[in-house]
Design brief:
- With 409 residues, this protein is α/β, with parallel strands linked by helices.
- It contains 15 helices and 15 strands.
- Helix content is 39%, strand content 17%.
- α9 packs parallel to α10 and α12 packs across α14.
- GO terms for molecular function: glycosyltransferase activity.
- InterPro entries: Glyco_trans_1 (IPR001296).
């Protein structure tokens, strides 16, 4: 069996990229032949080559690094990327290759789908977001700071000024969504949901005959003793600093509750965080090793108060694995792994609810009990790369066996 993992990036600069890379590594560790194809020219995670994975770049620029006109064209239909992808796929062994797409909006564009779907190889698409249906990808009304309730590409959806950038960007993204839908029409497709929340959010917008699968993301954490949570440790937000992820909520709620907070990451909400909580510690991005150290030595709880129906995030799982309680929004997919009151807290992404949760965390004995329970429960059924790879291999084997009988999209 040969697996081609396809994404925009080949370095772990975000959740979807991290999953694509870890998935490729886990499959290679199980003895499968793996090729990693990335659209954007740039550095590749050195672990890929070390694992014997062939890494192929399509030599494209990120659409956000192009001129406005160039980004518009490449974002809507990147013909050069599609042509280069087709040439790579032509060299893959027929009859035993499965294509697994993780990302496509930053370089590959909807033009990749006809190439992938007509290649003769089964295609799996992991839905790390909702771009397959929703124009802005997160099914969120940015102008209202609330989840969307409209049917994607309905008249009301097209008219809604919901884009985080501008009405003009919304128009472009609507066109991209139309092109995506057209590119997928008439073709069979298998999709992987990474959480129940993600599945329940997007499933109503997929044709009934699309084959849907539920596989957890892999979590790259070595088993160790639970973290020893100290009285002076901080509440931590880890990830891109944006309003839809609730980074600003953490800043305001921590200040109201009188609790220290740290932010690991960068993003457009950084200034709002500093204004809301001047005492907050802003660390920027940190290496994996440094993040592991922070988790075990300085973090009291990891907070993920997403306002949107986030499919993950990985940081909640990583916290539980380390024996650190997680405070998760009831809108995020990761909340399904948190036992509220036992391994952390599940709350509404609202200021008072979050402040109240933070006040409870002033009790160090309670936090330590939660951390130990989180560690124990997580390692009873860890989201390990090995378990992830086993689930994927079962899926791939079924697709290769049943390919002639798959229904059309």
């Amino acid at each position: 069996m040969h697996i081609a993992v396809i994404a925009d990036f080949a370095e772990a600069s975000g959740g979807a990229q991290s999953v694509a890379i870890q998935s490729a590594l886990a499959l290679a560790a199980e003895g499968l032949r793996v090729t990693y194809i990335h659209g954007i020219e740039g550095p590749a995670d050195p672990r890929l080559a070390s694992a014997g994975i062939a890494v192929v770049s399509l030599g494209q620029a990120d659409i956000w690094d192009r001129s406005a006109l160039g980004g518009l064209g490449a974002g809507l239909w990147n013909r050069p990327a599609a042509a280069r992808l087709a040439a790579v796929l032509d060299g893959l062994p027929p009859g035993r290759t499965v294509l697994h797409l993780h990302q496509w909006t930053r370089s590959l564009s909807p033009a990749a789908f006809p190439v992938l779907l007509r290649s003769g190889h089964p295609l799996v698409l992991t839905l790390h977001d909702y771009f397959v249906a929703c124009p802005n990808g997160v099914y969120y009304r940015f102008e209202r700071d609330e989840p969307c309730s409209l049917r994607p590409l309905s008249a009301a959806c097209v008219a809604a000024p919901c884009d985080p950038r501008s009405v003009a960007h919304k128009g472009v993204r609507v066109l991209r969504a139309v092109l995506t839908r057209a590119a997928l029409h008439g073709h069979r497709l298998d999709v992987v949901h990474v959480s129940d929340r993600a599945r329940d959010t997007v499933a109503p917008f997929l044709p009934s005959h699309v084959r849907q699968h539920r596989i957890d993301n892999p979590v790259e954490v070595e088993q160790d003793v639970p973290a020893e949570i100290g009285a002076a440790s901080k509440l931590a937000f880890i990830g891109r600093l944006t309003r839809e992820k609730g980074a600003d909520l953490v800043a305001s709620a921590a200040r109201r509750a009188g609790m220290p907070a740290m932010f690991v990451g960068e993003g457009p909400a950084a200034d709002a965080i500093r204004a809301a909580n001047p005492a907050a510690e802003m660390l920027g991005w940190r290496s994996r090793a440094e993040l592991d150290r922070l988790m075990r030595e300085e973090v009291r709880a990891v907070v993920a108060p997403s306002r949107w129906y986030e499919t993950g995030p990985l940081t909640v799982y990583e916290a539980l694995a380390a024996g650190v309680p997680a405070i998760a929004s009831d809108r995020t997919g990761a909340a399904e792994k948190v036992v509220s009151g036992e391994t952390g807290l599940v709350v509404e992404p609202q200021l008072e609810a979050l402040s109240s949760a933070f006040r409870r965390l002033a009790d160090t004995a309670l936090v330590r009990r939660m951390g130990r329970a989180a560690h124990e429960r997580y390692w009873q059924a860890p989201l390990s790369p090995e378990r992830h790879a086993a689930a994927l291999i079962r899926l791939y084997a079924g697709l290769l066996a049943d390919r002639p009988r798959l229904p059309a999209f």
